[in-house]
Amino acid sequence: LLASTYNKGRADAGNCEVPCDRRPHLQHSDDDGATWSTPRDISGEIRDPRWDAWYATGPVHGIQLTRGKHAGRLVFGVNAESYGTDRITENHAALALSDDGGDSWRLGARDTWPLAPDGTFRQKPSELTLVERVDGGIYVNGREQEGKDLGHRDAAVSQDGGESFQAPFRALPDLYTPMVQGAVIRLPSAGRRGPGRLLLSAPADPDRRRTMMIRSSYDEGRTWESVDRGAVVTTDWSGYSDLVALSNG
């Protein structure tokens, strides 16, 4: 399954004008990606009409839950903004859910941050990456987009299969990254007891998009390795990334 967004193009190099009519679509492949179905507009299922300034799915992989009563459910992240009176008025982080293999979708957990009277946001979680915890919960790690709280990453947890967030997103000031997308995945570990290991891919320079690094968490995302312990992929300029587990581990 491939989730994507579409908006009308422009003749110049400018961004989509705000309010921007970005629409989520879904495609599927039954031959390992050699061919794909015609894109299907699913705006009516997972885009709130009030999310009219910005809207994006992913941009990383979604997951399929394997534990508990929601096993089999498909989940991916969405971030959006609302527009009014010539400015962005609200920021939204949400989860899209499917219980029938992607035939139909709906919005589950949502976390909305309004514009403060002084014209700032406390937090603006966006570009969500998620992983299933060993207890069946969903750990969601996001890009922190110019909120007042310290740090460029934030996180939240859902304990009901993505229906709601246990608490609002909170900033992770000790997890050093620039303002950029990142990706989280569980590292398979056959026969290992305990919570296992999560991996995060993201640049490690807090000011610039460079020094791509893989950092580990051994407590289901509650804490992460510092930059002096992470595995450096490259010290060169680097930005967006994604992770996938291969069959050989």
Note down, in words, how this protein is organized.
The structure is a single chain. This protein has 249 residues and is mainly β. The protein contains 1 helix and 16 strands. The protein has one helix spanning 43-46, and strands at 2-6, 23-27, 40-41, 54-57, 63-64, 74-84, 87-98, 106-114, 125-132, 138-144, 153-158, 170-171, 183-187, 197-203, 210-217, 231-237. Strand 10 (138-144) and strand 11 form a beta hairpin. The chain is globular, with a radius of gyration of 18 Å. It starts with a strand and ends in a 12-residue tail after the last strand. The model has no long low-confidence stretch (mean pLDDT 94).
Could you write a compact summary of the structure shown?
The chain has one helix at 43-46; strands at 2-6, 23-27, 40-41, 54-57, 63-64, 74-84, 87-98, 106-114, 125-132, 138-144, 153-158, 170-171, 183-187, 197-203, 210-217, 231-237. By secondary structure, it is mainly β.
List keywords for this structure.
249 residues, mainly beta, Neuraminidase, five-stranded antiparallel β-sheet, four-stranded antiparallel β-sheet, 1 helix, 16 strands, 2% helix
What topology does this entry show?
Elements lengths: L1 E5 L16 E5 L12 E2 L1 H4 L7 E4 L5 E2 L9 E11 L2 E12 L7 E9 L10 E8 L5 E7 L8 E6 L11 E2 L11 E5 L9 E7 L6 E8 L13 E7 L12
Antiparallel strand pairs: 1-2, 2-3, 4-6, 5-6, 6-7, 7-8, 9-10, 10-11, 11-12, 13-14, 14-15, 15-16
